[in-house]
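Subject: Sanity check before I submit

Could someone independently write out the C-alpha cells for this chain? I want to compare against mine line by line before I put it in a report. The sequence has 71 residues.
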Amino acid sequence: QVNRNNDYRNGMIEMHISEIGFCSGHSASGVYVDDNACTTVPGLYDAGDMASVPHNYMLGAFTNGAVAGEH
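---
Independent answer below. Compare away.
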C-alpha cells in the first residue's frame, strides 16, 4: 500500500531524471482539442496523452483533465 491515495495535484512528486523520458513525447500529437479540451466532435472532450498537448507530460494530463472536467 505504499504511495497510495496521493493527490498529485497538491503535492510534489519525487522523480528520477531518467523518468522524464517515460512521461513525455517529443512533439504535440494526438487528437486536436481547443482551449476547453473539446474535440472537433461536439460534446466530446479529451485529456491526457490523447490530447494535442506539447510533450504529453504527466502534469499536462492532470491540468488538461481538470480543464475538460470544468467544461
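---
OP: Matches mine. For the report I'm noting this point. The chain has one domain: 18-70.
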